Amino acid sequence: PDSQAHFLDMPFYETGKVKKKPLVEQDIQLIVDLLEQIKPHQIYAAGDLSDPHGTHRVCLAAIFEAVNRLKRKPWMKDCYVWLYRGAWQEWD
After folding, report:
1. Burial class (CB within 10 angstroms; exposed 0-12, middle 13-18, buried 19+) of 81
2. What are phi and psi of 50, to 5 degrees?
3. Which among 50, 70, 74, 83 has the fewest CB atoms less than 10 Å away?
4. Is residue 16 part of a domain?
5. What is the spatial distance between Cα 39 and Cα 73, in angstroms, rounded to a whole number?
6. Domain range for residue 47?
7. Is 8 among the domain residues?
8. Closest CA to 35 of 81, 88, 91
9. DSSP 3-state of 81
10. In the chain, how many domains are there?
11. Alpha-carbon gap, residue 90 to 92, rounded angstroms
């Protein structure tokens, strides 16, 4: 259901330009807070690091850092991160 999809307005993204701000603690904490709230079994993230704007790479770094901070939580043993390819990296 749509209610189980979460889209974040991360601070690094809000520049109004192609070039984004650097990743900051607030970006990572948004993800940590969301993960602690919903305790997911699966996380889906864009893994196409060919994104010419670098947005997907920055988002993925934030997710990995959040997961690293939470990895000792009991519910994390059943949580998996799934990466998908987007428009910038098509399947062969």
Report:
1. middle
2. -85, 0
3. 74
4. no
5. 10
6. 22-92
7. no
8. 81
9. strand
10. 1
11. 6
Distance of CA 6 to the CA centre of its chain: 10
Tell me the whole-structure pTM to 2 decimals. Answer: 0.83
Is 10 among the domain residues? no
- Can you tell me which residue has the tokens 């948004």? 30
CA distances from 53 to 14, 17, 24 (A): 13, 10, 17
**Ordered DSSP codes for 3-70:** GG------GGGTTSSSSPPPP-HHHHHHHHHHHHHH--SEEEEE--TT-TT-HHHHHHHHHHHHHHHH
Residues listed for the chain = 92
In a domain, 15, yes or no: no
Question: Each residue's pLDDT tens digit in the chain (92 positions)?
Answer: 888 888 888 888 777 766 778 889 999 999 999 999 999 999 998 887 777 667 888 889 999 999 999 999 999 999 999 998 877 666 66
